[in-house]
C-alpha cells in the first residue's frame, strides 16, 4: 500500500526541502531566488543579489523584461499549445526572422539545447547516409566540448565525467584536441559525416576557436562531403557581440543550433540548416511534442527582435571592456587571475596556478557577498550576465566580488 504522504502545503518551502524532493543531480546555492528585475535578484529573505550568471547565459535581457512579460501575457490569453499536427503563427514568424538574418533556409524548434543538438546530429547522419553511404556516419568532435545531456549529445561532448557510467554509448564518434587542425586531418576521411564544435567552448573553459581553425574545418568538410555543425547554444544570440558567433569568422556552417538566450528565459531551442541538407527529411522522421509551441515562440520572437537590434549588439563590447576593467582592478589588488577568455559577455577569468581547481569555491563565496557568478571547469570564473546589464549593476557586482575574493585571499 502506498504510504499516505502529508500535503506539501504544510511543508516549509526552503532550501532543505530540495535535499528531500529533488533528484540529487544538482548542488544549488543555499539561498532561493524568488524575484528578479533587470540584473538584480531577491531571495526569500528579501536580500538583493547582482546577477552576473544570467541563468547560465539564458537571461540575455535580464529578469522580467517588460516586453517579454507583455509577449507572454498576450500569448497566454490566445493559444498555448496545439502540437505539430497544426502550424501556428508565432513559430512561423520566428522561423522567418531566424532565416532572414542567418545562412539558413529551414528551422526546427525544440525545447532545449540538447534537443536541438540531438536533432542536428541525427540530421547530419541521415543526410550522409541518404546522399552518400550507409557507412558515412563518423562524427568528429572535440575534447572539453559540451553539447547536452542526452546519451547521444553527451557522447559527442568531449568530457568523460558527463558521459561515463550510463552503459554503451553511440558509436563512431571521435574526439580530438580543440583548435588543432592537424588532429582533425588525421582522423577525417570519406566516412566522416560531420564535424561538430562550439565556436567558443562554454563549459570547457571559454576557449575561442581561432579563425584559421574554423576556415580549415570548412575546407575539410567541403573536401570530404561532411557537414560543419556549429553549436551556438551558449555563444549565440548576441552573447559574443554578433547575432551568432560564426558571423565574426566569415565561415558559414551547414547546421547551427541555438537555445539559452533565444527565449530570454523561456525554454525554446532551434536547429537551423540549409535547404540542401533539409531536403532529406520528411514527415515523421523526427519530431517533438512541445517544440515550436505558440507560447515559447511568441516570447522568443520579441527576445530576438530586441537582441538583434543595433543598440543591444553594439553595447556588448563596451560592457565586455567594463567587466575586464573591473576584473583588472581586482587582480591588481589580489593577483588571482592569470588571464581572460571568451568573447563579448561570454567571459572567463582564469585563476592563477595557486587557485586552480577552486573555481567552485569562488562561486560559493561570491554568493555570500550576494553576487551570482559561474565557473567553466575548475580553473575559470565565468560571467554571462544580461546583454543590457547597466554600468551601475556591473560596478555594484564587482565591489561584492572583490570582497568575496579578499576573503579567499586572506584565508590562505
UniProtKB/TrEMBL annotation:
GO molecular function: identical protein binding; N2-acetyl-L-ornithine:2-oxoglutarate 5-aminotransferase activity; pyridoxal phosphate binding
Pathway(s) where this gene product acts: Amino-acid biosynthesis; L-arginine biosynthesis; N(2)-acetyl-L-ornithine from L-glutamate: step 4/4
Organism domain of life: Bacteria
Catalytic activity: N(2)-acetyl-L-ornithine + 2-oxoglutarate = N-acetyl-L-glutamate 5-semialdehyde + L-glutamate
Cofactor(s) listed: pyridoxal 5'-phosphate
CDD domains tied to this protein: OAT_like
Chief location category: cytoplasm
Other notes: May also have succinyldiaminopimelate aminotransferase activity, thus carrying out the corresponding step in lysine biosynthesis.
NCBIfam families assigned to the protein according to its UniProt record, in alphabetical order: arg_catab_astC (TIGR03246), argD (TIGR00707), PRK01278.1 (NF002325), PRK05093.1 (NF003468), PRK12381.1 (NF009047)
Protein name: Acetylornithine aminotransferase
Amino acid at each position: 500500500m502506498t504510504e499516505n504522504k502529508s500535503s506539501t502545503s504544510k511543508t516549509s518551502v526552503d532550501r532543505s526541502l530540495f535535499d528531500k524532493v529533488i533528484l540529487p543531480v544538482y548542488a544549488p546555492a543555499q539561498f532561493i531566488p524568488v524575484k528578479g528585475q533587470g540584473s538584480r535578484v531577491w531571495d526569500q529573505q528579501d536580500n538583493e543579489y547582482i546577477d552576473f550568471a544570467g541563468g547560465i547565459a539564458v537571461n540575455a535581457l535580464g529578469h522580467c523584461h517588460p516586453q517579454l512579460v507583455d509577449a507572454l501575457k498576450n500569448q497566454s490569453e490566445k493559444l498555448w499549445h496545439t502540437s505539430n499536427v497544426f502550424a501556428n503563427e508565432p513559430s512561423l514568424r520566428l522561423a522567418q526572422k531566424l532565416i532572414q538574418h542567418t545562412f539558413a533556409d529551414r528551422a526546427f524548434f525544440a525545447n532545449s539545447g540538447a534537443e536541438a543538438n540531438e536533432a542536428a546530429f541525427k540530421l547530419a547522419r541521415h543526410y550522409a547516409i541518404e546522399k552518400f553511404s550507409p557507412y558515412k556516419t563518423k562524427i568528429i568532435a572535440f575534447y572539453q566540448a559540451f553539447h547536452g545531456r542526452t546519451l547521444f549529445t553527451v557522447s559527442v561532448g568531449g568530457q568523460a565525467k558527463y558521459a561515463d557510467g550510463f552503459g554503451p554509448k553511440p558509436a563512431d564518434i571521435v574526439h580530438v584536441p580543440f583548435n588543432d587542425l592537424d588532429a582533425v586531418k588525421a582522423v577525417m576521411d570519406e566516412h566522416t559525416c560531420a564535424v561538430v564544435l562550439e565556436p567558443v567552448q562554454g563549459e570547457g573553459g571559454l576557449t575561442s576557436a581561432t579563425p584559421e581553425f574554423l576556415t580549415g574545418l570548412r575546407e575539410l568538410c567541403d573536401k570530404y562531403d561532411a557537414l560543419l555543425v556549429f553549436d551556438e547554444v551558449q555563444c549565440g544570440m548576441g552573447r559574443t557581440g554578433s547575432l551568432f558567433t560564426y558571423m565574426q569568422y566569415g565561415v558559414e556552417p551547414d547546421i547551427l543550433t541555438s537555445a539559452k538566450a533565444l527565449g530570454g528565459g523561456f525554454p525554446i531551442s532551434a536547429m537551423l540548416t540549409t535547404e540542401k541538407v533539409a531536403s532529406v527529411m520528411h514527415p515523421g522522421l523526427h519530431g517533438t511534442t512541445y517544440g515550436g509551441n505558440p507560447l515559447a515562440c511568441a516570447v522568443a520572437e520579441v527576445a530576438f527582435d530586441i537582441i538583434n537590434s543595433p543598440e543591444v549588439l553594439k553595447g556588448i563590447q563596451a560592457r565586455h571592456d567594463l567587466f575586464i576593467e573591473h576584473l583588472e582592478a581586482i587582480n591588481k589588488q589580489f593577483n588571482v587571475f592569470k588571464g581572460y577568455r571568451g568573447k563579448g559577455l561570454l567571459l572567463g577569468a582564469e585563476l592563477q596556478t595557486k587557485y586552480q581547481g577552486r573555481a567552485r569555491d569562488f562561486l560559493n563565496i561570491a554568493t555570500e557577498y550576494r553576487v551570482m557568478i559561474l565557473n567553466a571547469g575548475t580553473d575559470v570564473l565565468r560571467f554571462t550576465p544580461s546583454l543590457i546589464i547597466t554600468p551601475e549593476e556591473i560596478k555594484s557586482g564587482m565591489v561584492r566580488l572583490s570582497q568575496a575574493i579578499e576573503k579567499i585571499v586572506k584565508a590562505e
